[in-house]
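Students often ask what a 'structure token' actually looks like in practice. Rather than answer in the abstract, let us consider Phage tail fibre protein N-terminal domain-containing protein, a protein of 865 residues. Its sequence is given first.
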Amino acid sequence: MTVKYYAILTNQGAARLANATMLGSKLNLTQMAVGDANGVLPTPDPAQTKLINQKRIAPLNLLSVDPNNQSQIIAEQIIPENEGGFWIREIGLYDDEGVLIAVANCPETYKPQLQEGSGRTQTIRMILVVTNTEAITLKIDPSVVLATRKYVDDKISEHEQSRRHPDASLTVKGFTQLSSAINSESETLAATPKAVKAAYDLANGKYTAQNATTTQKGIVQLSSATNSTSETLAATPKAVKVVMDETNKKAPLNSPALTGTPTTPTAPQGTNNAQIASTAFVMAAIAALVDSSPDALNTLNELAAALGNDPNFATTVIDALAGKQPKDATLTALAELATSADKLPYFTGANRAALTALTSVGREIISKTSAEDVLDYLRLTEIIDKFHSQITTCERNSRVENFYTLAETCTAELLSLNAPDVYNKSVTLTVNEELTTDYTGPVTGQCSIGDPQSYTIALCASTTLEYQFSSVVLESDGTFSFARSWPGAKSFKLYRTSNNGLVTVWEDPLCIRSYRVPSDAGDETVRVMKDRTYTYDQAVSAIALMAQGHSQVERFVRGLCAIVGSGGSEGSVPFFVNRMSAQTSSQYYRTGNAAWVAYALAYYLLKYPDGEMAVVARDKLMQCAEWIEMFRVTDGSDVRSGLYTSGSGQYLNGVFYPDFDADWCTSEHQFDLWFLFDLMGRLGFTGYAEKAKALADAIMEKLWVEDEGRFYAGMRTTGVDKASPLDCASWGGLFVANIDMEKARRCFTYLGRLWYATHDATGYTPYHPEYGYPNKQRGVWVEGSAGVALLARRLGDDTTAMDILARLAPLRTRYGYIDSCDYPDNDDMPPWPSSCNTAWMILACDPQGFWNVNSPVLPGRYYKY
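Now compare that with the structural description of the same chain:
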């Protein structure tokens, strides 16, 4: 449900906090004000610069970081019992310059005065969520404020648990520990009376001495013997001297310096061990070495001279050989070329090489990393797109679709939709720090590119729909350094400093971009839509990748898990997020989006039960499923009983209303939820098989139209919505196929009236003027058409499914499928490549059990249409 009481940063407060965060300075919060808002509970407005009707302003009594949540600042003010006589409905937080930083509403409360017969001290508290608590000064003036009982208790407890109790020393008084030891040398312990008495008795001769042993001190007898083995006698200096005199006559074992003429046995020739060699042995070995050498090489000096006096002769020879070209005809042909600038070698025959001129255009083409980049450079992309748009109907009907590779190709196009605007593989980036979303410290690294000082690198941090960024020029060695960063998903962009031309982008988005928005769509459209992901699109794209067993599944499941709860409450799923961070500031919820995200997590558990995200995905799935229950209609007297409402929040004329309740129950969302509950039940989640059964009963009772073989669009408090959108018949058919196949076939038959052709494609239109949408303009909807194809497959008609999918081929681009409409101003069907469209095409070709369609991948063939 929506939050009634809350605090927000004002526009001025947000700007000052952002400035303090970026500059590393502090924002000083000093005063709190309360007011009665002229008798009406207010809604906090970020544009406020003061309270609506202020009644009191005074210094803060407490300003601290919440110990249970490091992102929350707690501000408190105590209103003493001698002040009052007013209602409190609004709260304001001011800085030391008198600027309103935050504003909040609160439950109505009356602060009486003593003369009214009721006096009390009242504490007003504001809890404020910020991204960086370090940018706020947590300090109050104790001379002008009161302390609450909790504040005093906390300070006493803090003191008791602190280390502010110094130990005693030889120069300072303090706490000390007692000891009864009489042999300690400690200067930090205090002796007990017991230890003092023992020392006193020992001094007075009351201690009976014992004989010394090898383990304790005592009385010992001296001895001058040098051959004794006793362990109870002690050697005299005389005995020690005798032994040392004898020892000094011996040579040490370790590197002895012998004198005189020591001798050793002469070992046989060929002996090779650690024994000492005599001079006779050495001379015999030398004689054997030079016996067969020429006269000019029969001494070591002559041998060294012959080797150039090089102690590393073998290594020198090996290194020299390594620098030589192997005997190879091809390499020899290349080596014989007289190379020069702007020349490119080529072969004129076997082992025959020549040179040709290499132009600047040729160098540019060679540097490209993909065929798409080459087409862009040659400006052929626009020509190709225009050519496709001008194909006549006759030509189009002679085309074929390649079902051998359609699913695989669509998967590649789906991921290319998410590629950076520019990516140059030849330029690499190394970052020294681990850039988590919470990291805000320095960022350093190196970029490998020629002439680095001609380039500027930008560090970006995406949070919700916006991002912070900073840029620096690369150093001469390609290194860079940012003093700090911001919370959020980090990415980098490299520009040519001279013309601000984008060279490459490095990023790691958690979600798939919903649309590939062209640059000519308008600055504001590009700004809003470029990095936006609708959570439904993210879910269906992730499911398509799971069905294909793609290597990037785990990455985008992390994105799904990040989405759950990003709407501000546990388990919530917002309508859209930033594709980089999977976060949003919006509290715009739709039940269908939540059902799709939860289904994607459940499908992941079905396909990847031991996946690296399995534990987290299971927890997030349960949180989301429990959050969805808040939208179930439980009032038995309500005509919508047993169904789920569509969510909360509304955008109207560009203004967002978070308190709006979407009280209609759309059939589309009921189908989404049924497939979720059914899969969770099959995965063993307790109670969800029963939930699926109860929801199916409610759908069939309230929304099925028996006379027409279709489902109503939904139900409001006033009754059913009789309109007939495409997905109610297609998704409804997929749902009812699990209950009654004949009803599913009737749904498919009903869909025939929504078949439609535009100037460039034939398929199904989402809205028809004659079936409940008189103000809608028709077009060909790829997502909806693929849904009809999936229903055909569920009914066992793969031929019809292939025909539907093949006719959508003209709407395919290198970034996936676009929708088609003959009306350029139709906002419902923008002509942009869509991740949702492309993902649905993949699932229609190869469903892998998605929505209980267990058909195999469509057979490989060229299908003519």
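One point worth highlighting: Residues 388-398 have pLDDT under 50 and may be disordered. Ask yourself how you might have guessed this from the sequence alone, and why that guess would often be unreliable.
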